[in-house]
Amino acid sequence: MYPNKDSIYAEPIGEVGAFKFDEKVAHVFPDMIRRSVPGYSAIISAIGLLAGRFCQDRSFCYDLGCSLGAATLSMRHHIQAEDCRIIAVDNSEAMIEQFRKNLLQDSGEVAVDVNCADIRDIEINKASVVVLNFTLQFIPVADRKAFLNKIYQGLLPGGILILSEKLRFSDPRQQALQTDMHHEFKKAQGYSDLEISQKRSALENVLIAETFVRHQQRLMSVGFSSAEVWFQYFNFASIIALK
Known about the structure:
Elements: H1 23-36, H2 40-54, E1 60-64, H3 70-76, E2 85-90, H4 93-104, E3 111-116, E4 127-133, H5 141-154, E5 155-166, H6 172-188, H7 193-203, H8 212-221, E6 226-233, E7 236-242
Parallel strand pairs: 1-2, 1-4, 2-3, 4-5
Antiparallel strand pairs: 5-7, 6-7
Helix pairs in contact: 1-4, 2-3
Subunit structure: Homodimer.
EC number: 2.1.3.-
Domain Methyltransferase: 63-159
């Protein structure tokens, strides 16, 4: 099911550069994400179920930071609402190119627009479902509140934001434990210590994790009436925010 194995960091690299969603990553992304993010497949499945529940007739569903489109395709196969459309956006041309190929092989009937753009520049209108599946963590912290406010303003009454993120913990003991357990998870998936170390270096200052409390406070500050964790596996969690 995952023909292209992730071995990007399997050999020693003299100077590890910043992580980029380039062609190399797009080529192995399904394997990489499955072996790197605990519970990823469960989150993708649940996004489809939640979209089926919350998608409203004549509305839009947004998958912002869609990568290869896993969340979009999950939504596409669960939405029953009439005359709705999924807007999928990612700023990686390599990801978008592969996603368009994946879409051609998909049997779903809900219309999908695939866009290569910065998600901060996208207008959010008549949205009943917005998905940020491990996306906000790559946006500069200073831009996050304004971006979430734009999403909130574009959501219809009764709309939902699904926000999945890698978490940081305020208690140093919890931070150390959760980080160690994530590394153990990756080892169990076949990654070596070298791979784990080099990828961690590549993501430093690229992926900026925050605590759940900080996420919750920010979501409530832009207007969401409720924001709670529905799924967590070590230091990876997904939050449901309701308008």
